[in-house]
Automatic annotation (TrEMBL):
Keywords: DNA-binding, Transcription, Transcription regulation. InterPro entries: HTH_LacI, Lambda_DNA-bd_dom_sf, Peripla_BP/Lac1_sug-bd_dom, Peripla_BP_I. It holds the Pfam family LacI. One of its GO terms (molecular function) is transcription cis-regulatory region binding. Residues 1-25 have a biased composition (Polar residues). The keyword Transcription applies. This is Transcriptional regulator, LacI family.
Length: 370
């Protein structure tokens, strides 16, 4: 008699004796329901199958030291109960990482970040990993809290769109072996891989395009100029004007306009100037949408170029000229680099720049009036 056969309990023998009755296992009541709880445990499987907890563990972990008859019986009970192994708890007990990766972004409601997350999730599926997504809401404290929560869940790696200004707190987690990739913005006080957009190059192209149409008074409607993406786009605007010998006029600059109401107010302020701009450059998709809404009913034609493409931009009465990029590709490249690090890639720190391109649709080609 094998060691496995010595583990048969009286209940297991009783189950075995019913094989000739053609009674399906689903009709058998569990021997231990604990108040009919909705999520069956390994103990429930063991008692219903009439075997030890260790035997169920061996079946679940596909160990060889189980007889075929017992394996089939336990697997049938697992199927009938709908039991699923808690891989996260198992990995935590064993000090291992889970088959998950974490992504901390600013706001999933922003199409840019939802497309980025989609690209990450596509790659994670290929590596048989689940993606855990979290929003920092552009709050540095929340970013740290979300990273801490993900780390406690032993994610295999982290992708972060940073909100904070100091990321040295991640050093201890990286020293424990967790790869970290920064996306869209670089980290502060941390040497780590990053995947960034060509914010400066794309913005320079946008302003240059308006200059080439004959515009000399170009309004800028921007979000927070202190964040990496904002500062790069503002710097490109300033440099493009300087390269064309145009003196920068502060009344054409509008900052802090990520909020739709503030972007609309900035638009109205620019239009009410004694010498209003003949063109506007906006630095994000959300600002572009808010500005276009504010321009409804305005009779004077205003040239317009926005950073980021957005849904229906090509369907408006005057289709919108944009600086476009592939946010999903950005996510895919970030995830590929993360999994390379997870698998032991020891190349020097990588800095990958995702290119942008100008899409001319009409709004950016409107000539200045007069």
């Amino acid at each position: 008699m094998s060691n496995e056969q010595t583990e048969l309990s009286l209940s297991e023998k009783q189950l075995a004796s019913q094989e000739g009755t053609n009674l399906p296992l689903t009709s058998l009541e569990p021997l231990h329901t604990e108040g009919n709880k909705l999520r069956p445990t390994m103990q429930d499987v063991a008692e219903m199958a009439g075997v030890s907890l260790k035997t169920v563990s061996r079946v679940v972990n596909k160990e060889a030291s189980v007889t075929q008859a017992t394996r089939e019986r336990v697997e049938a009970v697992i199927k009938s109960l709908g039991f699923r192994r808690n891989d996260l708890a198992r990995n935590l007990r064993q000090g291992q990482t889970s088959s998950t990766i974490g992504l901390v972004i600013e706001d999933i409601a922003n199409p840019f970040y939802s497309q980025l997350a989609q690209g990450v999730e596509y790659v994670a599926r290929r590596y048989n990993h689940m993606l855990i997504l979290s929003n920092s809401e552009e709050n540095s404290q929340r970013e740290r809290e979300q990273v801490s929560a993900l780390s406690h869940r032993r994610v295999a790696g982290l992708l972060i769109v940073p909100a904070g200004s100091d990321h040295s707190y991640l050093k201890s987690e990286m020293e424990r072996g967790t790869p970290v990739i920064f996306v869209d913005r670089p980290p502060a006080n941390l040497d780590v891989d990053m995947i960034l957009l060509d914010s400066y190059g794309g913005s320079y192209t946008a302003v240059k395009h308006l200059l080439c149409q004959g515009h000399r008074r170009i309004g800028l409607i921007c979000g927070d100029p202190s964040v990496y993406t904002g500062s790069g786009r503002v710097a490109a605007y300033r440099t493009a004007l300087a390269d064309w010998g145009i003196i920068l006029e502060d009344d054409l600059l509008c900052f802090g306009c990520d909020d739709a109401e503030k972007a609309a107010a900035a638009t109205q302020r620019l239009l009410s100037l004694p010498h209003p701009p003949t063109a506007v450059f906006t630095t994000s998709n959300r600002i572009s949408v808010a500005v276009l809404r504010a321009l409804r009913g305005v009779t004077r034609r205003l040239a317009f170029v926005g950073f980021d493409d957005f849904e229906l931009a090509d369907m408006l009465p005057t289709p919108v000229t944009v600086i476009a990029h592939d946010a999903a590709e950005m996510g895919r490249q970030a995830a590929e680099l993360l999994f390379a690090r997870i698998q032991g890639d020891e190349r020097p720190t990588q800095r990958v720049i995702i290119p942008t391109r100008l899409i001319m649709r009409g709004s950016g080609e409107i000539p200045p009036e007069g």
